[in-house]
Design a protein that fits this description.
With 152 residues, the protein is mainly α. It is 70% helix and 0% strand. It contains 8 helices and no strands.
């Protein structure tokens, strides 16, 4: 069962293994179960954070296409999105997907904040008035979906 879980959902495997390590007693010559458990959990958390970062970068570039322009930059941003989507796809497990989906509003907000901080967007209002709910999971992960530009 653990081998199957390792291949199917790495994050769930890391959590199960960490719990199993913590259930054992440690002794003078025994393995350092607590620290091993923590390190294994951290591996899963690292995968989760990487996927969250890919999603936030995808959102940021979708926003650039839709709201920032100019049109000449769209091919470059699409190329970046393809790279982020491919990296996400390679690491995505069911556990990571479920957790990341629940964070979409926060990740959307983070992407907006970066664009405002870099002065590519002036305010949140212009985006939120047209895109109040952000992007749906399917739009973020669909290999060929890109928004239509809203500037011109």
């Amino acid at each position: 069962m653990a081998d199957d879980l390792y291949d199917v959902d790495f994050v769930a495997w890391t959590e199960a293994q960490a719990a199993a390590l913590r259930a054992r007693r440690s002794g003078a010559n025994a393995l350092d179960y607590d620290n091993l458990a923590e390190e294994i959990e951290d591996l899963g958390k690292s995968e989760q954070h990487a996927c969250e970062s890919f999603v936030e970068n995808i959102i940021e570039h979708l926003l650039k296409i839709e709201f920032i322009g100019p049109r000449e930059t769209i091919p470059h941003w699409r190329g970046e999105i393809v790279a982020f989507r491919n990296s996400l796809k390679r690491r995505l497990t069911k556990t990571i997907e479920n957790r990341t989906r629940s964070l979409l509003p926060e990740l959307f907000d983070g992407a907006l904040q970066r664009l405002i901080a870099s002065e590519l967007l002036q305010t949140r209002d212009a985006v939120l008035s047209k895109l109040a709910d952000g992007y749906a999971w399917g739009q973020i992960t669909e290999p060929c979906w890109y928004p239509e530009p809203r500037y011109d």
